[in-house]
Amino acid sequence: MNMEKNYTPQKTDFEFISGRNIDVDTNFASQGYWRGVAVHFFRNKFAVTGLILVCAIMIFAICAPLVSPYSYQEIISITGENGKEIVAKSLPPQFAGENQNLFADKTFIFGTDDMGRDLWTRTWQGARVSLIIAFVAIFIDMLIGMSYGLISGFFGGNIDNVMQRFIEIAGSIPTLVIISILAIFMDKGIGLVIASLLITEWIGMSKIARAECLKLKEREYVLASRTLGAGSFHIIFKQILPNTIGPIITQVMFSIPVAIFTEAFLSFVGVGIVLPQCSIGSLIEAGFNNITILPYQILPPICVLAILMLGFNLIGDGLREALAPKLEDM
Amino acid sequence: MKKVLMMALLLLAALMSGCGEESSNSGKLNVMLQSNVVSLDSAQATDSASFEVIADCIDGLMQLDADGKVIPALAQSYEVSEDGKIYTFHLRDAKWANGDAVTANDFVFSWRRHCEESTKYAYIMGSTVACVKNADAVIKKEIAPEQLGVSAPDAKTFVVELDAPVSFFPSLMCFPAFYPINEKFYNGLEKNTYGTSPETFLSNGAFMLTEYLPGAANIQLAKNNNYWDASRVSLENLQYQVVSSSDNALTAFKNGTLNLAVISGNQVENVKNDAELSKDLHTIPTGILNYLSFNQDAKNNHGGALANVNLRLAISNAIDRESLVDNYVTNGSQATYTAIPIRFAANALTGEYFASDQKQFADVVSFDVDKARTFLETAKSELSRDNFNLEMIYANDSGDTVVRVAQAIKSQVEENLPGVTMNLQPMPKAEYLDRITSNSYDIAITNWAPDYDDPMTFFTLWTTEGCEIAEHWSNADYDKIIANCTTGELAAKYNARWIAMYDAEKILLDNAVIAPLYTNAIADLISSNVSGIEFHSVAIERVYKSAKVQ
Amino acid sequence: MTKYIAKRLIMSILTLFAIIFVLFVLIRIMPGNPFPVERMSAEMILQKRLELGLDKPILVQFADYMSMLMHGSFGNGTSLYNGAPIKPIMLKCLENSFKIGVLSILFGTLVGLVIGIVAALNRGKFLDGLCTIISILGVCIPSYVFMIFLQYFFSYKIPLFPYFFDPSKFLSSAVMPALSLSLFAISTVARFTRNEMVEVINSDYVKLAEAKGLYGFQLIRRHVLRNALIPIVTVIAPLVVDLLTGAMVIEKIYGINGVGKLMVDAIAGQGVDYNYVLALGIVFSSLYIGVMLLLDILYGIIDPRIRLAAKDG
């Protein structure tokens, strides 16, 4: 008795009745869902390129300010024509030794800004802030916006009604009003920026998630699941969510630059990053003031942003295909 | 796809070019404004842009000539009583644009209305400036506006009674608050609509309004043929365009869209390096003083360290004003070491500007790192603190110059004064003004434009009463001198008053109530075919009555 | 459906009421006085506040405001900042922003759809990549930077369009702002259309339709586009509101008297202009609610399977 109870069946206890050898797919059977996603993802060379781009920007953002000879807020002096110390402002990109006459001893890869600070250091310093903002935006979208939209769309009826009216109220208050009020309670800086993004950024995503949910919830497989007794939250997050991943990832990609520019706008009206700190958005804003006469000042931040966006988009596309493998199969 | 886009674009362009380009007509001048016109109602206007447009359309009793001298406008002549307290103006034959004659009653009506309705500029009628009889009581609504000391014995005679002699009273008459309004026209309008559209605004000056909307980006004026001095006006059209970015202004000027553009900062340097464009660059001095306002209330909610005079002196002496104007303002503005801007308030007897000696207070206002550090050490031991964390606020919606100046000051002060940290706090103008009035700031970058041609327009800012609004400083000796110079015994003595004002300035700067930074200049690009625009440093910045376009 | 719409309408009015209340309370908490207060003494500010009844309890103020609103007037009907009446000015600005907004929506949606469809039909090929890059760049370059480029090249280098907005030449001066405003719409619409279409093209019923012999335009229009439309309409809807309510920076650069500039001036200008913020807020949120209502109705039309009302309704 005792022995029987503790007995665990072994593979060798069973054998095929027919005795014939059947091919068992040992490779895929043992492979978990996420492993599959990873395999799919890394097989996609565009996705890998995206990953490399984003990683490269992150590495530069972390390392470049550390190894740069200048600090991001240092106003650099150089020796001018008549031997006088002058501020190295608005210098186009130059390399040490290349320019024989004046500033031969200094390298400014992206040039300097109109305060006389090194744009190379500032761009990467700014990229740090903007990367944080980008990840916050993704987080807000995925967590708050998506859940809100899915729940609202799935339950429908009065729940949907109330939740949608709340969105209408939240969406109708001008961002500037919300932030000015927040600024009374919080110190200005990145914390305030994140708080204001938390309040305003999720609305777009919740709309998309709700629309997708509305479309999917009447599908046969959801009905089947429901008939089999699956709970609402199981259906929402296990059945509907994976099928909405496409539009959701697309939306996330768009909310990143929107968040970055929202931050820039906030800095511009004086509630964002506090000068002389900087972000990609505030650098674009600053370069914009001199765009036709000193165009090199706006190029670095825009290029970094574009590369970052390209990277995120390629990753997003890769993820989309990896998470919903049927796309790739066809 | 790109091709399709381009094609569509070109097609559209081709369609539209039909209705495009007007030939540039010679009598038209396009002028840039840096900010919106707040209101064409002189009781509501608070900014130089509004004043300029109002003055284009309405003439006052007096006006400034090309050299800034006060000459008659609607007043043909005037007499002053012996004690200097009664002014009698004799009006010339002038007409409103609708054909009505301009009468003394229009002035009486307008002045009374101004005392009753104006908010910011009501004070200009009162005892600190014009001293019009009973003005203070009317402003506070204690007595009826009919009791204001103005009267019209007949249609062409306008009499003003003052409480005290005011030496610069005729020059005040150039300020829009003292302009007339046609009473009949005004009363025929719906409430609150005066000056909100061309139909609700009546001019008697060189131009009339043809296109306007409050807050508009584009304002159009046309020559007023009923103007009494119409022969002097050669422009047929005057157009204002609000342009907020200096970069955009420069391109618009190169494009020929603007005949007069105001540029700043980097654009000025760019133009200076351009052989062709630099010929069109003109540096126009103004009477606007930029300064740091220190909040000296020891109980303010920021710790009140600035109540210590040595800390204030340390900051004031740690700022390299020359570097500030050379590197970051760059539009020809001049570093200033006095409480009065450099090219302002010429002495009527000697013709010398009040602040022409910039070294006068060099012992307390200069750039001297060693001295600044000595002041700082004293402050540290007096307050027994080693670190000062100060918040510097500024309004960031007036262009990017102030943003650069703020960062430069932070960098200089932190480098020259170890232990002092400055937090920059840019904010919208509304919040900035609120922070100042609600006593919740340490240092504010601010500026003040003179309302009339006398140093008193600055000195009254820092009396005990004036400082209740901002610096929260009080000094009995200072107050006494100012009172003496405005309504007291010195009011009628020109020279003694002038010297007393220097004493007041010394008290002010010894206490470092403010740290003067620089006197604004304006870098204007003016098309080479335009001539005759007059620039003034007081009240009305630009006058186009004799402007010509070839 | 009519019952549903009626119910939604009533709800929307209630929501609008709630929004006005929230906005009313919030802007009174906001930092900043409603008056141009440079060197204005505390005494005078107090006097001004008394005149406007700002000292009364907030609920009383709100009741007053609502009763005035019922009579068709936004508060006392004038700007607190320059005393000018609100309604005519707001209408004029709304008109300008609307015209340009509508142009940019039309252009943005059309071009976006075309780019998206082209990309989806050529997925994986060169054209797809090009479209992706265009739509990515479109969101990386802020519309106002693009506006400056346009201004620089198409009215300075090649003088095709007026350099500043000129109401008397509306069409030619609306081209550049409408184009730069539509940039974001083009990007989002193109991206969503492409991704949705790819998904739909890969679905079984499209395969079936293809197998039945449907092809080309017919297939796209009848099966693919219709099913891909839902998320696209969802992204366009808020964009419509954004574009109609004006773009502050572009309006500033190009000198357009629009509501975007009006709103920012009212909040962050010389003083917080309570009357203007509220008036504009009411207009904007009515618009927003209206578009959302339309959106929910549209869902039903595009995809009859969608059921919004509660199961019993």
Can you characterise this structure?
The complex is a heterotrimer of chains A (330), B (550) and C (313). With 330 residues, chain A is mainly α. Chain A contains 14 helices and two strands. Chain B is of the alpha+beta class. Helices cover 30% and strands 21% of the residues of chain B. Chain B contains 17 helices and 21 strands. In chain B, helix 9 (309-317) runs antiparallel to helix 11 (369-383) and helix 16 packs antiparallel against helix 17. Chain C is mainly alpha-helical and 313 residues long. Helix content of chain C is 74%, strand content 0%. Chain C is globular and about 80 Å long. The model of chain C is unreliable at 309-313 (pLDDT under 50). The interface between B and C is large, with 58 and 68 residues.
List the helices and strands and how they pair.
The complex is a heterotrimer of chains A (330), B (550) and C (313).
Chain A (H helix, E strand, L loop, with lengths): L1 H4 L20 H4 L3 H11 L1 H23 L9 E3 L5 E3 L31 H37 L1 H16 L2 H11 L4 H11 L1 H15 L3 H8 L4 H38 L10 H9 L10 H25 L2 H4 L1
Helix pairs in contact in A: 3-13, 4-5, 4-13, 5-6, 5-8, 5-9, 5-11, 5-12, 5-13, 7-8, 9-11, 10-11, 11-12, 11-13, 12-13
Chain B lengths: L1 H16 L10 E6 L14 H10 L4 E3 L5 E3 L2 E6 L5 E6 L12 H14 L17 H5 L10 E5 L2 E5 L7 H4 L10 H5 L19 E5 L6 E6 L13 E6 L3 H10 L4 E4 L1 H8 L8 E14 L14 H9 L3 H9 L4 E2 L33 H15 L4 E8 L5 H16 L3 E8 L1 H9 L5 E6 L7 H4 L4 H4 L8 H11 L7 H17 L3 E13 L3 E2 L2 E2 L6 E2 L4 E2 L1
Parallel strand pairs in B: 1-10, 14-15, 14-16
Antiparallel strand pairs in B: 2-3, 4-5, 5-7, 6-7, 8-9, 9-10, 11-17, 12-16, 12-17, 13-17, 18-21, 19-20
Chain C lengths: L1 H28 L12 H10 L6 H13 L15 H36 L4 H15 L2 H15 L12 H32 L2 H9 L3 H29 L3 H7 L4 H10 L5 H29 L11
Features:
A: 330 residues, two-stranded antiparallel sheet, 2 strands, globular, B: 550 residues, seven-stranded mixed beta sheet, 30% helix
Strand order of the largest sheet of chain A: 1-2
Low-pLDDT stretches of chain A: none
Number of strands of chain A: 2
Q: How large is the radius of gyration of chain B?
A: 25 Å
The largest sheet of chain A is: 2 strands, antiparallel
In total, the number of strands of chain B is 21
Q: Quote the beta fraction of chain B.
A: 15-25%
Uncertain segments of chain B: 13-24
Helix count, DSSP H or I runs of 4 or more residues of chain B: 17
Described by its quaternary structure, the protein is: heterotrimer
In terms of DSSP E residues, the strand content of chain A is under 5%
What's the alpha carbon Rg of chain A, rounded to whole Å? 27 Å
Query: If you average the pLDDT of chain A, what whole number results?
Result: 80
Bin the helical content of chain B: 25-40%
